[in-house]
Amino acid sequence: MPTFILALTWTHQGIRSVKDSPKRLAAGKELAKKMGVELKQTFLTTGEQDLLVILESASGDNVAKFALALSSLGNVKTRTMRAWNESEYSKLLSELP
Fold first, then answer.
1. How far is C-alpha 24 from the chain's CA centre?
2. Phi, psi values for residue 8, rounded to 5°
3. Considering just the CA atoms, what is the radius of gyration of the chain in Å?
4. Distance between CA atoms of 63 and 55, rounded to whole angstroms?
5. Exposure on the CB side of residue 8, measured as CA atoms within 13 A
6. Global confidence as pTM
7. pLDDT, tens digit, for every residue of 69-93?
8. Which long-range contacts link 40-43 to residues 24+ away (Cβ below 8 Å)?
9. What's the pLDDT tens digit per position in 2-58?
10. Are 52 and 5 spatial neighbours (Cβ–Cβ below 8 Å)?
11. Spacing of C-alpha 88 from chain mean position
């Protein structure tokens, strides 16, 4: 199943209530499930992004819809990236002309 990385940055609203972040994460997992997206892992990070979320979904459209729905709640801004694991990466390269 395709893997995606969602890079999240807290908004002013999100950081003001950062202690509620674990509750929001639980609600986000339920929202993702309803949208055909599985949250595999979530990381609190330092640097430019505040959180990194590893997702899987058969459809990139579902991931885009999830990211938009999540962002519309006002607590985070999102950046979405498609990720290929090592075997997928090798296969992809083997198919180059």
1. 14
2. -115, 140
3. 15
4. 8
5. 30
6. 0.91
7. 999 999 999 999 999 999 999 999 9
8. 40/3
9. 999 999 999 999 999 999 999 999 999 999 999 999 999 999 999 999 999 999 999
10. yes
11. 19
Tell me, letter by letter, the H, E, C secondary structure of the chain: CCEEEEEEEECHHHHHCHHHHHHHHHHHHHHHHHCCCEEEEEEECCCCCCEEEEEECCCHHHHHHHHHHHHHCCCEEEEEEEECCHHHHHHHHHCCC
Q: Distance between CA 17 and CA 32 in Å, rounded?
A: 21
Query: Which amino acid type is present at position 50?
Result: D
Q: Please give the backbone phi and psi of residue 52, each rounded to the nearest 5 degrees, phi first.
A: -120, 130
